[in-house]
Amino acid sequence: MQDHVAEEFKKLVETVAKLRSPEGCPWDRKQTHDSLKRYAIEETYEVVEAVDSGDEGRLKDELGDLLLQVLLHAQIASESGRFDIADVCRSIREKLHRRHPHVFSDTQVSGVEDVLVNWEKIKRCEPGYEDRESVLDGVPASLPALMRAAVMSRKAARTGFDWPDIHAIFGKLREEIGELEAAVDSNDPVHIKSEIGDLLFTVVNIARWADIDPEEALRDMLKRFAYRFGRIEERARETGRDIREMTIQEMDEVWDEAK
């Protein structure tokens, strides 16, 4: 099994190198680390969609597309002698060993929380982390805002900066709703924007306490919304009307039926 994996990986690395060679593909030869950034993001989201679909064949294909991005970056770096895919593999393998002393050494842990605490301690001792003064340093600014909020919330909570329980956050939620209403009444766009941000971050913290991924929760909700709204559009077509000709009462009735 291991020989089979090694052989297939070797063939794939050679294929990517061929694509980047003078005899290869003009598009692949043209790519740089910067030009490939958007594709790494797109392929990552396509992997997520494949997981959500439950289609293992689709997941296999999308994982391959994502792996291609890794190999392209490594091949580009190897062409200037900076690093290659072997260096990438070695780096992540060493990091996994280093950050899992409870698996590869004799460190004892009592559960997941201990693992996460140790992980953060080990990270702060690694090269490249010397200049990080805050536990929030290193959270990528390029993450979607909701995902970034969830990461920052978790990191802050591990320092003890947290509510005593989930019910206390509901008090904060009610407070933020009141402040948003006041901001809307003031008709101050800057104030409204600020209060909407506070409200959203409070909801993110409720999700964390409930052990729910807010990004996933919102994606699921958007699927439900698209389905129910689609039923409204379908009803409009069935009655020979444009959806804009339906009353809000008719729309609500179809919405409730779809639920």
Protein described:
Helix content is 74%, strand content 0%. By secondary structure, the chain is mostly helical.
**What fraction of residues sit in β-strands?**
under 5%
CATH class of the largest domain: Mainly Alpha
Q: Which structural class is indicated by helix and strand composition?
A: mainly alpha
Which value, in Å, is the CA radius of gyration?
Answer: 25 Å
Rough shape? extended
Number of strands: 0
Mind summarizing the main beta sheet? none
Write a concise keyword list for the protein shown above.
74% helix; mainly alpha; 12 helices; Helix Hairpins; extended; 0% strand
In brief, what are we looking at here?
The chain has 259 residues and is mainly alpha-helical.
Task: Spell out the blueprint of helices and strands.
Layout: H1 2-20, H2 26-30, H3 33-53, H4 56-79, H5 85-99, H6 101-104, H7 112-124, H8 145-157, H9 166-186, H10 189-209, H11 214-238, H12 248-258
Helix pairs in contact: 1-4, 3-4, 8-10, 9-10, 11-12
